[in-house]
Amino acid sequence: FDTSNNKVVIAYRDNGNSDFGTAVVGTVSGTDISFGTPVVFESAYAEQEDIVFDSSNNRIVIVFRDAGNSDKGTAIVGNVSGTSISFGTAVIFEDAVVRSPVAAFDSTNNKVVVAYEDSGNSDNGTAIVGTVDPSDNSISFGTAVEWESASTGSTQIAIAYDTTNNKVVI
Predict the structure, then answer these.
(1) What angle do CA 118, 72, 140 make, to 5 degrees?
(2) What does pTM read for this prediction?
């Protein structure tokens, strides 16, 4: 949910369009929802999308497994305007196969935290911190850190930001 524009944004793999990574902006009115025109954010097979809103920069961040680029962990920043969304350039956050990438927004530090299974490192659970630059809809990442030094077993990973204790929980 984009709180600055009061819009929902859905990211998905568009089966009807070559499995491209696609996003669409929705407007809720009462019990109805209407959608703008879908926008491709990755012109290749994209899967396991997760989406988070960076409230300090009023930007959407989508993380995904880029099957069009050897299943590398990738992120892209979007800017909602009306019923559409525009994107910056996709950025690789893990130069190896990832599974189950998920993201949360740390509102204390104004950072996006991505957790994932790193197949380039024995399927260990890994996390990385991203910083959004709203001037060009870009994101840069720090150094990846293991949160589980064993295989996560290709299980689903979940992440949340605890606003009471100011901690990210995976």
Answers:
(1) 90
(2) 0.95
